Amino acid sequence: MRIFPKIFFTTAAVVALAACSSEAPPAAADESSTDAMMDSAETTEPGTVVDVAVGNPDFSTLVTAITAADLGETLAGEGPFTVFAPTNEAFDKVDPDTLSALLTPEKKDDLAALLTYHVVAGKLMAEDVVKAITDGGGTATLTTVQGAPLKATLDGDKVILEDVAGGKSTVILTDVDASNGVIHAIDTVVMPG
User: Fold this and answer.
1) Are 4 and 170 in contact, with CB atoms under 8 Å apart?
2) 3-state SS, residue 59
3) What are phi and psi for residue 26, nearest 5 degrees?
């Protein structure tokens, strides 16, 4: 039994992710243009983790934060990276004044620390994370690029990340492939301290 479905990122996956958005669905395309999009998506290689985030409207706040922290070039680098990417809804849980302050040039270093706390060096697919949790007797410690650890556990078939302050986030989408790593979407921003 697979705990997480494996999802190969294509343009079709972006369309599927966008359909999960709380916004109104896009107007229906005619069948021939949809078929053409599906055909081209199957032959297109995924972009970097940054390209994947930019291509998904559910990560627009994350992309804004990556830009404000000047991390775009770093995360578009060779990697590989595992990114636990907060969705827009995850960022909506952060106090608006705190988020606005983090996006200012004066808080660029704090924002970079927050974002790199969501990144682990190497490419960890969902099955790798689950195996690490199982091998660790129910807990895996993931060392982030920021330096502080994230604790990963299972709650049924869901991976739960716990930050150093005890805050928890659930992985809600796994194995979104990128040319330089993988993205797993999370429902809450984790805090490095």
Assistant:
1) no
2) helix
3) -70, 160
Paired sense of beta strands 149-155 and 181-186, if any: unpaired
For the chain, how many residues are written?
A: 193
d(CA 192, CA 161): 12
- pTM of the complete model: 0.77
| Per-residue tokens: 147 | 């330096």
Q: Could you report the per-residue pLDDT of 97-106, keeping only the tens digit for each?
A: 999 999 999 9
In the structure encoding, which two tokens stand for residue 158, read together?
């869901």
- The model's pLDDT over 104-143, given as tens digits with 9 standing for 90+, comes to 999 999 999 999 999 999 999 999 999 999 999 999 999 9
Residue 117 DSSP SS3:
coil
DSSP 68-87: HTT-HHHHTSS--EEEEEEP
- What's the pLDDT score for residue 105? 94
Residue 147 and residue 135: Cα distance in Å, rounded?
A: 22
Beta strands in the chain (DSSP E): 81-86, 119-121, 140-143, 149-155, 158-162, 168-178, 181-186
